[in-house]
Specification:
The chain is of the alpha+beta class. The chain contains three helices and six strands, in the order E-H-H-E-E-E-E-E-H. A hairpin with a 3-residue loop joins strand 3 and strand 4. Helix 1 packs across helix 2. 21% of the residues are buried. The mean pLDDT is 95.
Amino acid sequence: MSKNIMMAASLPAGPEVLFDMYLDAQAHAAFTGLPVEIAPRAGALFRAFDGVLSGTILHVEPKRLIVQTWRSANWPADAVDSVLVLSFLPERDAGRIELVQVNVPECDFAGVSHGWERYYWTPWREYLARASGTAAQ
């Protein structure tokens, strides 16, 4: 049985900046802490966290929307790839990423759900704070 994840994260940068950072391999690696393979075009491969995550970019609406397949190496071999949709929206003086991820295997649902905060949102916020010089001393 698979489940779906819906969540949102507010980050201290504009949505266009966040969009560009996600699709730029060097910037993506800078905030996640590990090399990333990604490109801003449909058909581009996605690999992150030493190959634990993989997928393919399916659709890009510049500065607004990314759709990709997404799979964890922790999933059973017969599990279908999930589909990840990231929407980038303005929010006051920052940006908001709304995430919908469908077909997450139940056996890894908690890990993936918590993983978004632990491996993406928190380090991304910290990276942006350091980059802007507003990190706590």
